[in-house]
């Protein structure tokens, strides 16, 4: 049983009740000024160094800031702005409507419309494609806690001392967020992001909108469907989150899928031993990986200016294990080769995927990304507060999953988060004619999670990509013709498959 400090559990219950009552009391009229606001579209680039804005401008997109309440329980109080982009339909004669897109993370999404349009084939020209940075991310109420890392994910390592370093790291990250953003953290949540999305729908003058979301974006879409029934048209949910398991411990349960994907990659690398020198069999390659982690536990590996210990080296594997195509597999093989050389005491420069991953994990260059993501996770659901809960789970998980058990079960900043969630997690169970896409070897939102969301959404159809170790097979541009045909055909015609589909 997960233990939660009683005072925190009580705070969650009381806050949820008061917020729910406030929302019921305010009525729809409290949001009228937001829903009927005039959206002023403008260029997207914020300056000469804004690559995202420049690319959007080149694609013909326009950007705007939509005003919303910081606290939906008090819509007359402080307001904030949510950043959106729009790429207008070019086939106006056959325009279907507006589609909001989200690529997961949680992270920014204003950059996505041009990319999604390219994936959609002929259907892309028939939609106004809208990207929204969910609150706390990108340009929307940005949360940047000044972290010394781009992310909160760490492995528990190989020893209790390694785990305790992770506890101190998570505590420090939470403290930094408390010091910088105490005023907005209580209002960062997926339910509020869904409310923002509905204000945007209304301000755009749309009775219904379509939606295309992947990974975390499937959870946002499902929460929106539950909170605002009847306001969605055509919906694609790619590599779904199981709403009943959404929590700060979202990686707990992914260990087995990652272990299998690593074994499949080891087979691939063994067939290319002349290039990577990692071993000529699956067992030999995995033994090399194990030696790398063990060496990093004794002495942190030196890679350029970085030092990677046993809390970091497994995360490098995890970070690069999202796609089973040759290119991504070669990037992982290159990274493992570099770490193996460092373990032998050789000079290894911080270049390529290994250098990029270590820069992400060991510098504050991407602090905003990890800070924003954590604010949403911790704002949605409470986490156990006792480090001993995590240590117990880590020891149990490592016995079955030696490479990734220390990641999935490990502690994170939500254990020390300064604010409790103001509302209970959304219970999703609704009717939503839609397509749910899932790959059987997904290493992030594992395939059973997609199946679970499919069961919770009456009227949905499941499109399964069998035998692929890939996350978000549609939005990631995996290129499976069967998956793309099912999704794009549905987006063009509105007709779901007559039954669930399996793509080989």
Automatic annotation (TrEMBL):
Alphabetized SUPFAM superfamilies for the sequence: alpha/beta-Hydrolases
Residues covered by the Peptidase S33 tripeptidyl aminopeptidase-like C-terminal domain: 409-503
Pfam families (alphabetical): Abhydrolase_1, Abhydrolase_4
One of the record's GO molecular function terms: aminopeptidase activity
Signal peptide: 1-24
Gene3D superfamilies: alpha/beta hydrolase (3.40.50.1820)
EC class of the enzyme, as a word: hydrolase
PANTHER family: 2-SUCCINYL-6-HYDROXY-2,4-CYCLOHEXADIENE-1-CARBOXYLATE SYNTHASE (PTHR43248), TRIPEPTIDYL AMINOPEPTIDASE (PTHR43248:SF29)
Entry's family note: Belongs to the peptidase S33 family.
Protein name from the UniProt record: Tripeptidyl aminopeptidase
